[in-house]
Amino acid sequence: METQEALNQYYAHYNEDNRLRSQHGLVEYRTTMRFIQRYLLPGMRVLEIGAATGRYSHALARMGYPVDAVELVEHNIEIFKANTRPGEPVTITQGNAMDLSAFGDNTYHITLLLGPMYHLFTEGEKLQALSEAIRVTRPGGIVFAAYCMADVSILQYGFAGGNIHRLIAEGLVDPVTFRAFSNPEELFELHRKEDIDALRGHFPVTQLHFVATDGYTNHMRSVVDGMDQATFETYLQYHFATCERQDLVGLSHHTLDIFRKEGE
Fold it and tell me: Cα separation of 87 and 89, whole Å?
């Protein structure tokens, strides 16, 4: 309950919808949509878990796909509803990623888990959220799970931001291995790729892609936001060409683990 209240307060003062509309935010959005659209076929049903204000849910619904959305934070749900157009094939339910009992087994062709893994801090919570996302996905369906990455935060917030000694002193960064340790007070859980691989390894799924959804973008936000349209489109083409390079994914603030649920 304390974690939910902290998230309510955070998102009440943070415009997630506008973040994805800024030029630097569009890199993450367009990359995510690019991979979702690779697997969409007519008639597919979509579930978005942790839908925030509905940027993805609304976009997919307006393309004609029936979308059910689940969101924990009331403030986000209010914006989601306000942004819903008449006749749009989308629903929104308040709920928790770890309990999708309102949704049946093997229901959705595409399941999006684009926010909850940012805010789950124990292995049990993370496995429960993944288990629920996989349960409601049809055999052969695709799950998209997004994560915040650790090393880029240590470099940018820790070293560049002058906070590294405090983080070590508070036990949030190991001084030998430089692994990051989060807690609910910090709001965001941080991962390395091997952590994500280990979580996925608990389930009968096949990984399809591991994507750096924003790549190097957040290291040079002002540069990206200042690009003219032609330069920005060229930057996007560079990003699309390199976002699956495994030697670069650790530099991305956000990553997307894309996998298929096994079975017929």
Answer: 6
Reported as half-sphere exposure (CB side, CA atoms, 13 A), residue 115 has a value of 24
Question: How does 159-190 read in b/e, with b if 16+ C-beta sit within 10 Å?
Answer: eeeebbeebeeeebbeeeeeebebebeebebb
> In this structure, what DSSP letter does residue 96 have?
B
Tokens 């949509």, located at residue: 33
84 and 90 Cβ atoms separated by less than 8 Å = yes
- Radius of gyration of the chain from its Cα atoms, rounded to whole angstroms: 18
Helix (H) or strand (E) holding 239: helix 229-242
* 62 vs 234: CA distance, rounded Å: 27
Q: Which residues contact 234 (CB under 8 A, 6 or more apart)?
A: none
pLDDT digits (tens, 9 = 90+) for 140-163: 999 999 999 999 999 999 999 999
Per-residue pLDDT tens over the stretch 68-124: 999 999 999 999 999 999 999 999 999 999 999 999 999 999 999 999 999 999 999
Distance in Å from the first CA to the final CA of the chain: 39
- Give the global pTM: 0.93
